Amino acid sequence: MKNKNSNIWIQRELLKSEAFRTLPAGAMNLYLHFLMKRQMKKEGHGRREQWSIKNNGDIVFTYRMALGELFMPSSTFMRSIDRLIAHGLIDVSYSGSGLKSGDCSLYSISDRWEHFGTDEFKENPRPKDTREIGFKHNKNNIKKRVKGKK
Known about the structure:
By secondary structure, the protein is α+β, with helices and mostly antiparallel strands. The protein has helices at 12-16, 18-21, 25-37, 63-70, 74-86, 139-145, and strands at residues 40-43, 50-53, 59-60, 90-94, 106-109.
């Protein structure tokens, strides 16, 4: 039985674009998996009917998923994500820490690729993580950490 969500729709212009054609094979494969994760909805009526991405900005793709679904190691996954961002195909809408369960990065499908390789292309690099994560080395924390140890 055919699932109603078993198709992936890709714009012909995207397939012909420099942004898509110059991707390494791993990044191209990852992008197709991103397209499988999007949820589409119809908006409007009649001839004004258009499709939009219902979960844009809320697409989850974790390192664990990449390993399980694509057999892609974390270093390759990270490089592929960076390539997709650099080519204007996806954007990071939320940068998760990966330390807490459920705090993972969220992505959106982007149309910046339409201007890739032109002066109109707007770069949108991965946000730098400025959070202070880990153990702060000050006297109080060191005392807590070595409490009871000599």
